[in-house]
Amino acid sequence: MCLYQTSMENTVTTIATGQADTLPDKTRIKLEIIAEGDTAEAARQAVADHEATLRETLLTETSLSLEQIRATGFEVRHREDQFDPSQTGSDYRAVKDVQVDTQPGHVGDIVVIATDAGASVASVGFSITDSTRGDLEKQALANAMEKAREQSETLASVEDATVGTVLNVETREPSGMQTIVDDALEIGSDHDFQPSPISVSGEVEVTYELIQN
Question: Where does the record place a coiled coil (predicted)?
Answer without folding.
Answer: none
